[in-house]
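Morning run. Coffee first, then this:
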Amino acid sequence: MAIDITPAVIPHLCVDDAAAAIDFYVKAFGATELGRVPQADGRLIHAAVQINGSTIMLNDDFPEFDNGKSQTPKAFGGTPVTIHLTVTDVDAKFAQAVAAGAEVVMPLDDQFWGDRYGMVRDPFGHQWSLGQPVREVSMEEIATAMQNQG
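And here it is:
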């Protein structure tokens, strides 16, 4: 029997409390838990949720598998990666994330590229942006706006 494979790009997040992260993502982003695989000590070696129609995998931090080094954003002092969600009611979704405990990084506002957009940081150090297209903007308009930014 052949296994049906659908090519995908799936973020895989390392957090310091995967069970709590799943609970947060359910409250903040309306995630649906797809499953979890605990180790004997209770830490999750693998878990997955679906957010906004896409899968996000996550696991607890296992420094013992990486020469004693933690792999969480908090251990690194931040993250260079932002996970973006395009949504249909950005004001409500942004407020939901903040109410669940996300920290506002960039307040929600209408942007020159045509989106209503803002950024939050989850309690585990991962950064998320939420956006909703509100008007079409040409590449020329974007280029002009960029030139006028500075």
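DSSP finds four helices and eight strands in the chain. Good start to the day.
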